[in-house]
UniProtKB/TrEMBL annotation:
Pfam name, any one: Aldedh
Top-level lineage group: Bacteria
Xref: InterPro entries: Ald_DH/histidinol_DH, Ald_DH_C, Ald_DH_CS_CYS, Ald_DH_CS_GLU, Ald_DH_N, Aldehyde_DH_dom
Organism ancestry: Bacteria, Pseudomonadati, Pseudomonadota, Betaproteobacteria, Burkholderiales
Record keywords: Oxidoreductase
Organism: Pseudaquabacterium rugosum
Protein name stated in the entry: Aldehyde dehydrogenase family protein
Length: 481
C-alpha cells in the first residue's frame, strides 16, 4: 500500500520509496521541514534493511537486460526521462525551493534545464564510447566500456536534483542499474525524479529510490558487497565512512567533497568584474561546494576591491527563495545556522574584523547576513575549514608567490577563481593546486569537462569521459595482427 502524497503548494510528492518500478511505503518515517519558515512539510519514508535489500535485489535483477542494450537502445528511454523531468519543471522548482531553500530563479533557469541535460547529454555521449580502438604494430585493441553493475548514488542537500541527475545520467547511460539515496534534509525533488523515471518507462529495477537518513539507510547501502560502484557527493567525514565501507568490499567509489576555494584578485584585475563575481559567492546562502570563499587580494588594490564589493553586497536581496527577486535565501537547517554563526563568533574572538554582516539576519530564524571577515591568519579555523554559509574571508598578498602559497595552504583542493590580466591570471591559475579553476569567470560547468577535487576535496573525476571511466568496467579486447 502506498502513502498519501505530501502537498507542497500545488504539487503532490510521494513520501514513499520507489523500488522495482513501484512505490513502497515506509515502516518508519522522518520529518522534513521548510528552511524558510520551519514549517513541517511532511514525513518521508526511512529505508530499513528490508527496503535496502529489495532495492539491491531489484537492481540486480534488472541489470542483465538493461546492460545488454546498446547505448543507442538505451537512448530513447533516457531521452524520455529527460522530457519527463522537463514536464515536471514547475513542481521541481517549487518543491526544491521549499525543502532545500534553493532560489526559485536558479531552479527555473539553471537547475531544471541542467537536470534534463545531465540525462540527455550523457545518454548521447555514451554512443561514441562503443567505437574506441587503439591500433599498434602488434594488434588492434577494442576498448570496451562495459556496464559495471548496481550503482549506489548518494547526494547532499544543497543541490539534490542537480547532483542526483549529474550521477544518474552517466550511470544509466553506461548500462548500470541505480539506487539513489537522497539527502534527508531535502529529499522531495528526488521523489519527483522517480515519478519522471516511471513515466518515461524505465524498466522496473533500473532506477530505484530509497529514502532515509545517512547513518542508517545510506550506511546499509554502501556496505553491501553486491554493489559495483558508489558515487558520493557530500562532506569529508561521511566520505571517510563510505570509503571504509567501499574499501572493505574493494568497490570503486567516487568522492566529490567540500571545498575552501581561493578567489585570487591580482593587482591588474578588473576590480568591478572581480567584485561582482565575489558577491555571487553569497548565492544559495553560500551553501555551494565550489564557491571561492577565501578572497586573496593584492594589497595595493584590496581596499578599493572591498569598497566595490561592499556596494554590490549592500544591494543583495535576502529573503524568500520563492520570490524571484531574492538573491540570498535561507540556511538549510537550524544546526547549520548554529554552525555558521559559531565559526564567525570564534573568528572574531580570535581577532578577525567584521567588514560586513557577522550576525543572524532578521528575515527569519534560518537566515545569516552575508559576511566578510578580514584580519585573519592562514592557520585560523575560519581560513582552514569549510563554513558552508554566507561567510567569506579576505587576506592580502604582496607577490604572486605569496598568493600561490596562501591559495594552496589548506587541506582542500576543489576549485578556485583568479581575476587578473589574462596571461597573468592563467599563469597563476596553473600554479594553484585544485581540481579546476576559473580565470576571469566563475561557475562555467561544461558536461564534457572533468569535475572533482584533490586533497580533502575528493577522489576521482566525473564529467564527460571521466564519468564513464568511473561508471564502466574498461576492458581491452586484443586482436593480434
Ligand atoms: P553529508 O556528508 O552530511 O551528507 C551527504 C549524503 O550522505 C546525505 O544523503 C546523507 O544522508 C548521506 N550519508 C551520511 N552518512 C552516511 C553514511 N554513513 N553512509 C552513507 N551515506 C551517508 O553532506 P551534506 O551536509 O548533506 O552536504 C554538504 C557537503 O557536501 C559539504 O561539505 C559540501 O561541500 C559538499 N558538496 C560537495 C560537492 C562537490 O561536487 N564536490 C557538491 C555539493 C556539496
Amino acid at each position: 500500500m502506498t502513502s498519501p502524497a505530501l502537498q507542497i503548494g500545488a504539487h503532490a510528492v510521494s513520501p514513499d520509496h520507489y523500488i522495482d518500478g513501484r512505490r513502497v511505503a515506509g515502516t518508519a518515517h522522518f520529518d522534513v521541514h521548510c528552511p524558510i519558515d520551519q514549517r513541517l512539510l511532511g514525513r518521508v519514508a526511512e529505508g530499513d534493511p528490508a527496503h535496502v535489500e529489495a532495492a539491491i535485489t531489484a537492481a540486480q535483477r534488472a541489470f542483465p537486460a538493461w546492460s545488454a542494450l546498446s547505448a543507442a537502445e538505451r537512448l530513447p528511454y533516457l531521452e524520455r526521462f529527460a522530457e519527463e523531468i522537463g514536464r515536471r519543471a514547475e513542481a521541481l522548482c517549487a518543491v526544491e525551493s521549499s525543502d532545500a531553500g534553493v532560489l526559485l530563479s536558479r531552479m527555473q533557469h539553471g537547475v531544471v534545464p541542467r537536470a534534463m541535460l545531465n540525462i540527455r547529454w550523457f545518454a548521447r555521449h555514451a554512443l561514441a564510447l562503443q567505437a574506441r580502438t587503439i591500433e599498434t604494430e602488434q594488434a588492434t585493441h577494442h576498448v570496451r566500456h562495459d556496464p559495471a553493475g548496481v550503482t549506489v548514488i548518494i547526494t547532499p542537500w544543497n543541490a539534490p536534483l542537480m547532483l542526483s541527475t549529474w550521477k544518474l545520467g552517466p550511470a544509466l547511460a553506461a548500462g548500470n542499474t541505480c539506487i539513489l539515496k537522497p539527502p534527508e534534509w531535502a529529499p522531495l525533488t528526488c521523489s519527483l525524479l522517480a515519478d519522471a523515471a516511471d513515466a518515461a518507462g524505465l524498466p522496473p529495477g533500473v532506477f530505484n529510490l530509497v529514502q532515509g537518513t545517512g547513518a542508517t539507510t545510506g550506511a546499509q547501502l554502501v556496505a553491501d558487497p553486491r554493489i559495483a560502484r558508489i558515487s558520493f557527493t557530500g562532506s569529508v567525514p561521511t566520505a571517510r565512512r563510505i570509503a571504509q565501507a567501499a574499501g572493505a568490499n574493494l568497490v570503486p567509489c567516487s568522492l566529490e567533497l567540500g571545498g575552501k576555494s581561493p578567489f585570487i584578485v591580482l593587482e591588474d584585475a578588473d576590480l568591478d568584474a572581480a567584485a561582482a563575481t565575489a558577491a555571487l559567492m553569497y548565492r544559495n546562502a553560500g551553501q555551494v561546494c565550489l564557491a571561492g570563499t577565501r578572497l586573496l587580494v593584492h594589497e595595493r588594490v584590496a581596499e578599493d576591491f572591498a569598497q566595490r564589493m561592499r556596494s554590490i553586497v549592500s544591494q543583495l536581496v535576502v529573503g524568500d527563495p520563492r520570490d524571484p527577486a531574492t538573491e540570498v535565501g535561507p540556511i538549510i537547517h537550524p544546526r547549520q545556522v548554529e554552525r555558521v554563526l559559531g565559526f564567525v563568533e570564534r573568528a572574531v574572538a580570535a581577532g578577525a574584523r567584521v567588514l560586513w554582516g557577522g550576525q543572524a539576519h532578521d528575515f527569519g530564524a534560518q537566515y545569516v547576513q552575508p559576511t566578510l571577515l578580514d584580519h585573519v591568519r592562514q592557520d585560523d579555523e575560519i581560513v582552514q575549514n569549510e563554513v558552508f554559509g554566507p561567510v567569506l574571508t579576505l587576506q592580502t598578498f604582496a607577490s604572486d608567490d605569496e598568493a600561490v602559497a596562501l591559495a594552496n595552504g589548506t587541506d582542500y583542493g576543489l576549485g578556485g577563481v583568479c581575476y587578473g590580466q589574462t596571461d597573468h591570471a592563467q599563469a597563476m591559475a596553473e600554479r594553484v593546486r585544485t581540481g579546476f579553476i576559473w580565470v576571469n569567470s566563475f561557475g562555467i560547468r561544461d558536461l564534457a569537462a572533468p569535475f572533482g577535487g584533490i586533497k580533502r576535496s575528493g577522489i576521482g573525476r566525473e564529467g564527460g569521459d571521466w564519468s564513464f571511466e568511473f561508471f564502466c568496467d574498461v576492458k581491452d579486447v586484443v586482436l593480434p595482427r
